[in-house]
Write a structure and sequence with these properties.
The chain contains 16 helices and ten strands. It has 471 residues and is an alpha/beta fold. The strands form two sheets. The protein has a seven-stranded mixed sheet, sandwiched between helices. Strands 8-9-10 form a three-stranded antiparallel sheet, with no helix packed on it.
Length: 471
């Protein structure tokens, strides 16, 4: 059996090398990862991107589209047999139908292949025929991405980090009460373990709803078919010097390590490690509305997300030998349509500042990074409203809760991002004189031309950064 195992390993290595050689010499699909934390708009981004690559009338900032070099775009069968297909048609119908509504959010990994027939550019383009770019778009929850940071943490380290944060959060009161009853060095009791895990899961849900982003383990929020399994039945406990065998602490540690090896590691190996380009969507406006603590938490989350990548350039030899690094990373602040365009520059400066640490690390490793404010689907129109002898730059849209039309002025973002980040680092409890608000808008009814996708803000610029060089 040992010889068979070794032989299988050798054959696997030969097959991987052959696949790498074929990909390096004859081209390969470009894999674009799309992630973001809760409510950041991953599903809408992918749906709008595909729709606008298929009908390119609104993609003027995508050079190949503006020059008319993209001859055709079409959806291919799902390339990975074990990964669900991204339900593009259903999501597009939800956004563009007679009663438009937001589609269901991302709950698991899914994938879609879009193939583009492209006419080459340059002086010798007339001597070359059309070529095909296969764009494999991989959608996965950002909460799962944050789990990759757990790979370098022991159970004691993770517990210490989590418990230090929970002490000041009202959402954790029930869990902390349950934890106070537990004796980590005492004998493991399964009903008690399940009670602790349930209370911790409720805390994670409440923390996410309150605008916090450090909600790991991510599968506690999106368990899928793992719900109720021991691998999702643990919680942080105070560190013990020498917990005995059979103790509650040792069992929680065992389950934590099983979570890393059986849930986190396979996700990294099967999906994340194969990404070429990555977009990280950020709902920064909701974080600002939630307050300084949420913004500081978001800044840490962005740094943690970047630590999970292996940024750098994919050179020929790297591809041939099977190594993969993320070449480009885009940090995109979503929901730019919730602000008048006069504030978009400030929003871009804020997302630049929030992701500065993450971008610096990626650039040092050789990756190309960018940040921008965008809206995958534009849901509002702009107008100026008279107020106290002056005019306020407002946006008008359909309110999600009531379905009524309303003009809205959320408040002014600061010109200097430090006015947000400094109070957040210092632990301030409120800012912007308490007058900044975020509003939820429903998608607006659309009448699309035959050659144009749904309206957006800077989606074409995002596409140019992410795939423009491959076209």
């Amino acid at each position: 059996m040992v010889i068979t195992s070794l032989a299988d390993g050798v054959m696997s290595g030969v097959e991987s090398a052959a696949s790498g050689l074929s990909s390096a010499l004859f081209g390969r699909p470009l894999r674009l990862g799309v992630t973001g934390l809760a409510r950041s708009g991953k599903t809408v981004f992918i749906t709008a991107l595909v729709a606008n690559l298929m009908d390119r009338g609104r993609m003027l900032q995508l050079t190949a589209a503006r020059e008319g070099r993209i001859e055709a775009a079409f959806l291919q069968p799902q390339p990975d047999d074990t990964v669900p297909r991204f339900d593009y048609e259903t999501h597009l119908a939800a956004l563009t139908g007679p009663s438009p509504h937001w589609p269901d959010s991302t709950r698991a990994v899914s994938e879609l292949r879009l193939s583009l027939k492209v006419r080459p550019a340059g002086l010798l383009s007339g001597l070359q025929g059309l070529r095909t770019l296969h764009l494999d778009i991989v959608d996965y929850p950002g909460e799962w991405l944050l789990d990759l940071a757990l790979m370098d943490k022991s159970y004691a380290e993770w517990s210490g980090d989590v418990l230090a944060r929970l002490a000041s959060r009202p959402q954790a009161q029930q869990f902390l009460a349950e934890k106070s009853k537990a004796v980590p060095a005492g004998a493991h009791d399964e009903p008690q373990a399940q009670g602790l895990a349930a209370a911790f899961t409720e805390y994670l849900r409440a923390a996410r709803a309150a605008g916090f982003y450090d909600c790991t383990p991510g599968r506690f929020l999106l368990p899928g078919d793992l719900e109720g399994s021991p691998v999702l039945t643990f919680a942080p406990l105070p560190s013990e010097a020498s917990p005995p065998r059979g103790s509650l602490w040792r069992e929680m540690e065992r389950r934590y390590e099983a979570y890393k090896s059986k849930v986190v590691k396979p996700f990294f190996r099967d999906h994340f490690a194969r990404i070429d380009r990555q977009v990280v969507l950020v709902d920064a406006l909701s974080a600002i509305h939630s307050g300084p603590q949420a913004v500081e938490d978001l800044r840490h989350a962005m740094a943690d997300i970047l630590s999970a990548f292996k940024p750098g350039r994919n050179h020929f030899l790297t591809r041939l030998l099977g190594g993969k690094r993320v070449e480009k990373i885009l940090f995109a602040a979503t929901k730019a349509d919730h602000l008048h365009h006069a504030q978009h520059g400030r929003m871009t400066a804020i997302i630049e500042a929030l992701t500065r640490e993450a971008q610096d690390r990626a650039r040092f490793a050789g990756a190309e990074t960018a940040a921008l404010a965008m809206a995958s689907l534009r849901t509002t129109t702009e107008e100026m409203r008279a107020h106290d002898g002056g005019e306020l730059p407002c946006v008008r849209g359909t309110l999600l809760e009531s379905g009524k039309q309303a003009a809205f002025y959320p408040g002014a973002l600061p010109e200097d991002p430090a006015q947000l980040l400094a109070p957040a680092r210092q632990g301030a409890e409120r800012w912007l004189e308490g007058d900044y608000q975020a509003m939820a808008f429903a998608p607006a009814p659309l009448t699309l031309k035959h050659d144009s996708g749904p309206p957006h803000i800077r989606l074409d610029r995002a596409a140019e950064f992410l795939i423009g060089d491959a076209l």
